[in-house]
Amino acid sequence: MSPRTALPAPTASTATASTAADTAGAATGAAAHVLDNPAWAALAGPHAHLAERRGRAARYPADVSPFTALADPADPLAWQDLAALAGPPGSTTPVTGAAAAPAGWEVLESGHGVQLVATALRTEPAPEAVELGPADVPEMLDLIARTRPGPFLPRTIALGRYLGLRRDGRLIAMAGERLHPPGWTEISAVCTDPDHRGRGHATRLVRAVAHGIEQRGDTPFLHAAADNTRAIALYESLGFTLRRHTAFLRVRTPLDAGPAVPAGTTSNREN
Fold first, then answer.
1. In Å, how far are 23, 25, 36, 253 from 29, measured between CA atoms?
2. What is the pLDDT of residues 119-157, one digit of tens each?
């Protein structure tokens, strides 16, 4: 296990998830940490080669991940970019890191989660684990469908390294990497076949995936649904510490495309 740094504190404006009603002045205190907006930090950084981006809004391809992010959820221009990225007026899209949407947007679904950071996690390789690749995706999708740990799509494996455990040739447990903001890597898709639970498979895989992350010089972190108390308790027992609460939405873009962005504001926008 490599030495741990202190738990990175959320900035004052992001101790809880941002809302569209926040003003720019609320963020004039401490500089935002990359974990305050990890999906954007990943899409604008190490995962930029995967990003579909319009100015201050970005997303992964639909068969990789549902994550869609804004550079600043309090910035109206970012929401305009998201509307353009989503498609024709009235399109639906997920968006992370925002607890509310601007006027004219319809919130179809909302959810809450927690973010935890490795502060005392013992990491080690798992010699019995196998590295999973594209040929394993059908089995991975089947395990995900039976255990429902969270979104995993046909090309999610492009986000990072995945490890699995097999018994009699059958995939019974897996875990891997998802968001990759600079200096950090998220552990995700932690799941075990119901017939093989209670034997420490998830623990071994989390430690093994985290070991690989640390070998690259990154620090592991993860997310869980706020009501998944069993998973949160497991992660805390392994040495993860709660850092912040998160929010996500599924929204419908305004039917009225709205006014054009003033010419003077386009210099920081990418098409």
1. 12, 8, 14, 31
2. 999 999 999 999 999 999 999 999 999 999 989 999 999
